[in-house]
Amino acid sequence: MAESDETVGEQSEEGAKSGKKKLIIIAAVVVLVLAIGGGAAAFFLMSGEEPADVAAEEVAPVPTVEAFYTKIRTPEGKPMFVVSLESDDEQLHYMQVYVEAKSRDPAVDEALQQHMPLVVARLNALFSSKNFKSLMKAEAKRAMRDQATEIVKEILQDKIGEPGIESVLFTNIVMQ
Asked: Residue 167's closest CA among 102, 97, 123, 110?
């Protein structure tokens, strides 16, 4: 019996030693994997900065041209359109719209001033053809703005040979 107690004690000491060895080996492998991963990450991150710096030096800064905003005014000089809208409920509805055209060329501003009666007439026809209920939705207002942009671009294309404007902006819309 005494011999069996001694062999059990020796086996537990050997088990503890082999468990410690396994723990040390696992820790060493983990440290090695982390070191390799960190080195690889540092290599890729450090090498990625050089081409970005070179690319930044090669690209010339783009000069920004100031935008011009031209108020689209009625022949009487009013800064807004007031139109009656079609309605399904048989009531009279009105819409008031303040309109501006955005361009980057001062010559376009002059062309808009010269052809303002035509622009106003075409936009007035567009606005008064709309339905009150449908314009309650934001998508319908965006679509109307896009249509107004296309109308003004068509007029400028016909008169000066280029679309001229980037967009038409509604700076204020009131419907009742």
From this structure: 102
Question: Highest mean pLDDT range out of 7-16, 39-48, 58-67, 100-109?
Answer: 100-109
CA 155 to CA 113: how far, in whole Å? 12
The span from the CA of 139 to the CA of 14, in Å, is: 79
Strand partners, 101: 70, 168
Question: pLDDT digit string (tens) for 20-78?
Answer: 888 888 888 888 888 887 777 777 777 655 555 555 556 656 567 788 888 888 778 88
Looking up tokens 């109308």 gives 151
| Paired strand residues for 68 | 103
Q: Are 157 and 163 in contact (CB under 8 A)?
A: yes
As given in the structure block, the two tokens for residue 100 are 């501006």
| Closest by Cα among 104, 112, 107 to 66 | 104
**Token pair for 25:** 């080996």
Tokens of 7: 């062999």
| Residue 126 CA neighbour count, 13 Å, CB half | 21
Helix, coil or strand: residue 74 = coil
